[in-house]
Structure formats: C-alpha cells, structure tokens
Prior knowledge:
- This protein is of the alpha/beta class.
- It has helices at residues 16-25, 69-88, 102-105, 122-141, and strands at 29-32, 50-51, 65-66, 93-97, 149-152.
- The chain has a single domain (27-152), classed as Alpha-Beta Barrel (TIM Barrel), CATH 3.20.20.70.
- The chain has 4 helices and 5 strands; from the N terminus they run αβββαβααβ.
Amino acid sequence: MTTSHEPAYAEDGMPKEQYRAYHVERAKMIQLTYLGRRTRWDKGDWLPAVSPSHNREPAHRAFPKKLEDWDIELIIKDYADAAERMKTAGLAGLELEAYGHLMDRFWSPLTNTLDEPYGGSLDNRMKFTFDVRRLCANALVRLPARYPLHRRRDC
C-alpha cells in the first residue's frame, strides 16, 4: 500500500524499488547524430542538406550546401540542446554517432574543404567533434547526477 498517489508497482507488476534497481542495471542510452549531407532534401519540409564540402552525396546524388560559420555554430548548439533534453527525459547516457554522418565528414580532407577554423589541418578538422563534445558535456554538467557521454566511430 502506498501513502501517495504513486502506485506501488510499475506497469509490469514489478515492485517500484525492484523496478528502479532494474532500470539502473539495464540503463538506456541513446545515440545522437546529425545526418548532414545524408539527409534527403526532397522529403517533407527539411532544410537543405549540409556538409563541410559541396561533394555530392552518393546515396541520393544531391549536392549539399557547404556549411558556413553560422551553420556550424547553430548545429553545435543543437547538439548541446538535444543532449540536455535526453538527460532530462531520463536516459542514462548519450553516445555521439559519427560514422557516415556530419561529424565524420569534417575529419577527412576529401570531405572537408572548409577554411580555418574547421578545415585544413587535422587539428582543425577535428575541432567540430571536440566543440560538439565540449558543449554537450557543459550542458550535461548543469544537470544533477553523473551522465556518460561517448563518441562512436564505426569502421
């Protein structure tokens, strides 16, 4: 019996204390990504596909808009805002997905033709990833409790 309006059992009939322990044991994480040039330009009310170069996307043959400084700043802020929303929603961790999406397009000189500060040397090409990670971590620090943040690069 409970003294509040909260039921003593989770929806699946498991006692709340056991359910909370189970949730911690089987913590849920989410992958966060930005498709960049992989986005389909011809579906729905999407904004133009963007990339650090004007190279054609092989999957749907469209040419993306080459990123400008204000695009990059907005996307980095969007990552941080999304990370904060994921933690607030109760997810136990966040993984930044890079493979084949916008983040790894910055890494190669073949797919990144930007000038400094996000193009040119390897350090500059990695700056976008580091800026995204730093702003996500800063956004998560403002919230209580430890929250894992990972980056995935599949090969």
